[in-house]
Write a sequence for this structure.
């Protein structure tokens, strides 16, 4: 390879790397606005990711495992897992439903998390649950509240 081609190849590689870092920067910039200890922030993100992953899998029991106790209560003779399994079946059949959840799961990695004592919120463009992205530290873990 001639020196001229080597320099051109190096310049192209540098341009690609710079472009990739610019695409990543906004997500990292948002995450930089998180408030709380790194462990708390990671724990809230993990709870949110587990919630959305359970939704994608159609796992009603998995979803209920992330919900605060009052939201897990049986209603009209149906358990939390039964209600969520039925809800998820409909959601995953909707056109674009799975794609929206996958997009939301990716967004969680870089979303700002605000921890204030035993409450936390994650700033996502779409709500995790009933318009809420709030978590409560209870039962020795972060649980999604309604």
């Amino acid at each position: 390879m001639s020196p001229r081609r080597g320099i051109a190849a190096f310049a192209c590689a540098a341009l690609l790397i710079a472009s990739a870092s610019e695409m990543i920067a906004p997500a990292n910039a948002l995450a930089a606005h998180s408030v709380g200890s790194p462990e708390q922030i990671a724990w809230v993100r993990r709870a949110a990711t587990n919630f959305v992953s359970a939704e994608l899998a159609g796992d009603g029991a998995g979803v209920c495992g992330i919900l605060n106790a009052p939201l897990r209560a049986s209603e009209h003779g149906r358990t939390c897992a039964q209600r969520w399994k039925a809800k998820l079946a409909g959601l995953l059949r909707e056109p674009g439903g799975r794609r929206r959840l996958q997009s939301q799961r990716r967004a969680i990695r870089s979303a700002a998390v605000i921890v204030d004592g035993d409450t936390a919120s994650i700033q996502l463009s779409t709500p995790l649950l009933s318009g809420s992205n709030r978590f409560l530290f209870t039962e020795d873990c972060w649980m999604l509240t309604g």
Notes: The helical segments are 3-31, 38-56, 60-64, 69-72, 80-93, 97-108. The chain has two domains: 1-32, 34-144. Residues 1-32 form one domain. The CA atoms of residues 60 and 86 lie 8 Å apart.
